[in-house]
Amino acid sequence: MGELWRGLLGRAARLIAGVHQTWRRSLQVRVVTITLVASSLLVGGFAYLIADKITNILLENAKTDVRLRLNSGADYAAKQVYLYGQPQEAQLQETIEGTVNYLAGGDPQQTSGVVVAITAAHHGEIQTRTAPDVDVQPLISPELRAAVADGNVASQIGTGRLTGDRTKYLVYGSPVPTRFGQIELYYLVPLARQDATAADARATVVATGAALVVLLGLLAALVTRLVVNPVRVAARTAQRLSAGLLDQRMVVNGEDDLALLAASFNQMATNLQRQIMRLEEMSRLQRRFTSDVSHELRTPLTTVRMAADLIFAEREEFDPAVARSAELLQAELDRFEELLTDLLEISRFDAGFAMLDAEPTDLVPVVHRVVERLAGLAERVGVPIELDLPDTEVIAEVDPRRVERVLRNLVGNAVEHGEGRPVLITLGMDETAVAITVRDHGVGLKPGEEKLVFNRFWRADPSRARQTGGTGLGLSISVEDARLHGGWLEAWGAPGQGAQFRLTLPVRAGDRLTTSPLRLVPDDARLPFGGPRDGGPLAIGPGVGGTLAIMSGPAADVPTSRTEVRS
């Protein structure tokens, strides 16, 4: 029994969910439903008023007819019994019986349904007479009997069985004056015909109202269909346009407002297509220009490099000023060659030609290699590098060259901005992901800078001299390398608290990331009152569709708000 109820409840829940979903998604369903409900209430109210009015008219007509008959009958009965001075007279009972028969139509067995009765509440010697001969006592209430006995004309409506089926009767009573006091005359008129007429009228009104409601529903469905269909077509066309099918257009029929909407939509789509094609062409030319320039600069750079190497090798024989110039030339050529390499890499990313050469790799030696390469720089600027690595291997399917390049950029930036304080590198792993965080305790990021940190050629402080001679493309390339792995590259920073970058990669190439084994916001971060919503630290990471997500959140790893900017 419990399983049956659970099954029924499950079906009911699914049905309600389906109806709710249809209600939310279909404008036509909402308009038709609202029209049907509103018209049903309106038509139902009018139908009730009309049916009630018809019933009241029929009842008033019946009352008027009974009152006329009652007045005439009371006058006739008064004349018939006026000759009798005492209620005990022998002929009085026969006179009353004849009067009742006459008022009932002259036939004691008449079948019109009207019942005439004469009673004498104050004279027990006079027996109640009715025509036809039925018991009217159940239909004459004590209140009505008392009112008529007091000399008043009174009425009531009651239901009972007198001459056949149970029927509703209109009962009217009137006093009849005599020489010995008064007697009471009652008319009991069946309302079956009036009830049948009122029922027919109600049925007719209800049927007409129902037909009107259905007609209004069909009309609303037709009108909303005429309006909703072009909107649906516009929505489908917009979806195709957003999917890249820029040649999609709406069909324009007629010259009304909907046709104007379709024409305007088509004009907008044409302008968007023209602008997008123009931007794509400009982007293509820009990428081609960057790639061509980078390649074309290779040949003169090689020649200049050969000459510079020769001069640099012989610098000991030159004057000190010339020797220093040779050293500067060599350093700038190194930076220029690195810039060309980064530009070529960026052009490959932009063109979509970058390929991932993933293989099972232990990331612990990768971190050690990066630290060894940057040990000289760290010692020169006085920034110690601390490691927090697992004792066991950390194996993941990654491209070791790209991961090492990302870590080299992150650690190099941390050392450059470390302000003489330690830089901590942490490596963590769970069943689905590996993560590496690089934490510095430098000046941190000012409000708003977290939106720019991954932009190409952006520098937090333009007046600050680069210790590493970087190109300004390192973090941009790192973001693309992380995205190529299907991973995340995120940043957190706060003024005076330093910054932390987190690289998260899937353990198996191609898997989708859901969480990271390491926290983005460091444990020693000081959050302001109210948390990040009151201006706390922000984080930047990859979002949906090739975007960077700017996230703010408490010390926990789950962001509380999220916006997106293009990388």
From TrEMBL:
HAMP domain mapped to chain residues: 225-277
Question: What's the EC number here?
Answer: 2.7.13.3
Protein's UniProt name:
Sensor histidine kinase MtrB
Report TM segments. 31-51, 203-223
Mention any one GO cellular component term assigned to this protein in its UniProt record.
plasma membrane
As for membrane topology, the entry says: Multi-pass membrane protein
**Molecular functions (GO terms):** ATP binding; phosphorelay sensor kinase activity
Domain Histidine kinase, by residue range, is 292-509
Q: Which InterPro entries match?
A: HAMP_dom, HATPase_C_sf, HATPase_dom, His_kinase_dom, HisK_dim/P_dom, HisK_dim/P_sf, MtrAB_MtrB, Sig_transdc_His_kin-like_C
* Reaction(s) this enzyme catalyzes, per UniProt: ATP + protein L-histidine = ADP + protein N-phospho-L-histidine
